[in-house]
């Protein structure tokens, strides 16, 4: 898995006058690529090739993206890390690409959803880029574990986020939206496994913010639905992961947040345990049952790690 150094710049690419007259043929492949980029906000040709699978690996995806950029459907920028040689090229949707996707996206992308897509100033922000480039890196890497028996269905943030409001006869009020970075569902043969809402945590959060995040998931799902969902959090470091579990354990002492922590299915891991795609299927995850915590010394250790599903 690729990591960017701390010293890099984002360099937008400018079209030439000759590119402006380029006309690309709109087909199912075009819409599929636009949809994928919309879901992940920004991607490289390598990410798209991984999501499309082996059969599409050699179909000149880079050339296809280049033509879509020339035709005005995409914007692009390069990542400069001290050398102009082999700079990664990232693609995002242009206004024209968003319009085409809205018109031909089979009703999945309404006007309100399209409006939430980040503008040029946002995706050229280093803070935004550092987060989103790792999200698509993780998801595309995980997509490679699929095989003849194991199918994986991915959804980006746009299709994974909760509705703004869910009516309940006993609780008729607005529920704050949660926005996971992506969701994934595994299917082994004919057995469909719970949906995993995945959050990538790049920077530490305060105790209040972290507990508020857990409470959003808890409030959204009804009690009989929670068995069908898992919250998976991938932390930047193991230290951040341990700090999270220490917060959740101490939250058990309070009634307001303890319920949400106890009744959510949560698994965690960190980037140091993920280097190749098969790592996602190995013992890299921690749960509440994995922990040892001394309340007197306040020392927490992750005693054992498990697979996300025993059947994998």
Question: How much strand?
Answer: 15-25%
* Principal-axis shape: globular
Q: What's the end-to-end separation, in Å?
A: 22 Å
Tell me the radius of gyration: 21 Å
Mean pLDDT: 84
Largest sheet: 6 strands, mixed
Provide a short characterization of the protein structure.
The chain has 312 residues and is an alpha+beta fold. The protein has helices at residues 28-40, 45-52, 61-70, 95-104, 111-115, 120-123, 126-143, 157-160, 207-220, 238-251, 255-262; strands at residues 9-12, 74-80, 89-93, 150-156, 182-188, 191-192, 195-201, 229-235, 266-270, 291-294, 299-302.
Characterization of the model:
There is one protein chain. By secondary structure, the protein is α+β, with helices and mostly antiparallel strands. The chain folds into 2 domains: about 10-130, Winged helix-like DNA-binding domain superfamily/Winged helix DNA-binding domain (Arc Repressor Mutant, subunit A, Orthogonal Bundle); about 145-300. It is about 35% helix and about 20% strand. The chain is built from 11 helices and 11 strands. α2 packs parallel to α7, α9 crosses α11 (about 255-260) and α10 packs across α11. The longest helix is centred in the middle third of the chain and has 18 residues, at about 125-145. The two termini are about 20 Å apart. The relative contact order is 0.10.
